[in-house]
Design goal:
62% of the residues lie in helices and 9% in strands. It has 142 residues and is of the alpha/beta class. It has a four-stranded parallel beta sheet.
Length: 142
């Protein structure tokens, strides 16, 4: 299955704190599926910058080395104009930040599922399809 991974999920790969980060196990399971090739990830162009920004704020001591580790995953990036146009339409329709809608736009344009742990966005956008809660994805993928 092709998936788009939200920064909220990628942060669980890094922090690995099941007490503070719900669904850490599910996020790590998804990462293992991507690494094994049973799921294929495709990302919007800003995903690494978004994760780096959160890391610089929350865990500055590991931010640089973690950027290198995430970059080494070599996740493909989708950045064509159709994705940006779709993201703009989603941002306007949902009254939501473009950085979040870019993930969803990649999923919609590239026949993928946007996997997120951002319940607010998922509830707001679920009627558009191609968006799944991390816990629900894990249950259906397992």
């Amino acid at each position: 299955m092709r998936v788009v991974i939200d920064a909220s999920v990628a942060m669980k790969w890094i922090l690995r704190d099941a007490v503070r980060e719900a669904q850490t196990g599910a996020a790590l399971s998804l990462l293992r599926c991507i690494q094994a090739g049973s799921d294929e990830a495709i990302q919007p162009p800003h995903w690494l910058a978004e994760v780096a920004a959160v890391l610089a704020r929350l865990r500055p001591e590991i931010a640089e080395s973690t950027v290198d580790l995430l970059d080494a995953l070599e996740l493909p990036v989708a950045a064509d104009p159709a994705i940006y146009r779709r993201a703009v339409r989603l941002a306007v329709e949902l009254d939501h930040h473009l950085f979040d809608t870019l993930y969803h736009a990649v999923a919609l344009e590239r026949d993928a599922v946007f996997v997120t742990s951002d319940d607010g966005y998922r509830r707001k956008a679920s009627h558009l399809g191609a968006v799944a809660d991390l816990a629900a994805w894990t249950a259906s993928a397992g």
